[in-house]
Design brief:
homodimer, alpha+beta, two-stranded antiparallel sheet, DNA-binding
Chain lengths: 150, 150
DNA sequence: ATCATTGCAAAAGCTTTGCATAAGA
DNA sequence: TCTTATGCAAAGCTTTTGCAATGAT
């Protein structure tokens, strides 16, 4: 049987001697119900709309736990705040972003493991992870953004 | 004769119809005198120590100009604020960071251009740039960080 | 003489935190 | 029962902005 994100979270909570609360579980469930990137405010509003009352303070206190147990990750810091995505159950991927319209493509690239191997050999680091974001102009925005310089 | 960062900046200023001020030039000079990553506070303090009076507001207003004309770039958002590096005159590079001690290695990796080409072909994007940060444990921190889970 | 830029202080945003109350274990 | 977690409001930080004065063109 497949391990769910909630199970992963509960194991983590127990392992760290923390407490399983409805607020924390509500947050986990909403993050995995949602299939896009999110930020604190969006998450808070979505919960509020469903009458799931969780304070922002609790969200701010819960997200680091979810990052720590590998359920989510910080994607990027833009517009003055962090954006997250859930990663549990998804293969590792990178992002290709359109510099003009913001459109986002997720891709996997085996060459990155080649790169990790090279770094391991050259600098003696034990590699743990990588984050790659590629910036360009999507087919719709070509000409537009490029000509404008941005 | 080699084009200096100050010339690049002055060209940009003129091109955009902005004004060449001593504050802006002081900022550019200090950033290129300094050969590490920096943040607003560090830059401000270094200038203050030299009795070069430039307000933080001016720094905050100038950095976006320097990013725009390609003299510097945002490296990462950590510890609650942005970190920058000057890039003019330096070949494009990526970062390898130790997850335990923070040690930073700059490296160049030709395979990334391969990756860019693949993305261009597969998704039709015109690629502009990429940012890759690899996380691992440096030779000194192996065992330490890894065993601790972080 | 114009009008952009500066510095200051205030404001704006996001995130963190102190504290009393609620509620897991 | 003993502590941790929650919610609220206040505080903390970084960054932005309004405005009068300054200074570049």
């Amino acid at each position: 049987m497949k391990t769910t994100e909630l199970q992963v979270f509960r194991d983590y909570i127990r392992r760290r001697g923390l407490r399983q609360t409805p607020e924390r579980e509500t947050i986990v469930r909403e993050i995995f119900r949602l299939h896009e990137h999110f930020d604190v405010d969006e998450l808070y509003l979505r919960l509020a709309q469903q009458d799931l009352k969780v304070s922002k303070a609790s969200i701010y206190r819960t997200l680091p736990l979810l990052v720590d147990c590998g359920l989510i990750r910080e994607v990027e810091y833009t517009d003055g705040h962090w954006h997250y995505e859930h990663i549990y159950g998804h293969p590792h991927h990178c992002h290709l972003r359109c510099a003009a319209c913001g459109r986002l493509v997720e891709f996997q690239e085996p060459l990155l493991f080649e790169i990790e191997k090279n770094l391991q050999e050259k600098y003696g680091y034990t590699i743990k992870d990588h984050v790659l974001t590629v910036l360009g102009y999507c087919p719709q925005c070509q000409g537009v953004g490029e000509a404008a310089g941005d």
